[in-house]
Amino acid sequence: MSTFLPEPEALILVAVLPNPRDLQIAKTLGWYRLRANKAPKVISVDYVAFYQTGKFGESRWQIRHFAEVRGHELVTRKELMRQEPNHPRADDRYFKLQLGSMYQLDLPIVATNWHRLTFLYTTGAQFNAATALSDLVIKGQERELLWTALKERQATWEPEVLSDAPQVDIDLSLILALQSLGKLDDFDLGSIG
Q1: Is the pLDDT of residue 72 over 80?
Q2: Domain chopping of the chain, boundaries
Q3: Contacts by 53-56 with C-beta closer than 8 Å and gap 24+?
């Protein structure tokens, strides 16, 4: 559990975690993927909060985790998921968000009335006070301030090119299996993948 909360002025993207495997990738490998053609307009945010879908069983329809966003790059799916080279979307472009520290909320932010979500922008102040997903929605004059801040971020973003970064070929299923067995708990894999 963590008592760390984002700064009140932080920009936060609430994004969907389709299944528990994606949470394990975020925790273990330190990245999260967004299909470029389905991604929100602005991904230069301070934090990403993960909305868990119905596939999470007892932990479904809530936000339990969030992470610092340290950067992002544009890659193909097959570059991200090397063990799935024949996937139907292998050549599709994805934004790979590099994550910093991953935090778990003491109390999850739950979806009460609506369970379907794609993306939602909010601020640290809203996030820190929220108990329900609907509490994250920014209204009134604060909404205009949020959109101004997002437009400024979008205007200053340039694609990050990591062509000099070493390419490490790792079997993702092996990493996740070792992590689930507790063999990698003290090992930081945030820079791999």
Answers
A1: yes
A2: 11-158
A3: 53/16, 53/17, 53/18, 53/19, 54/115, 55/18, 55/19, 55/20, 56/17, 56/19, 56/20
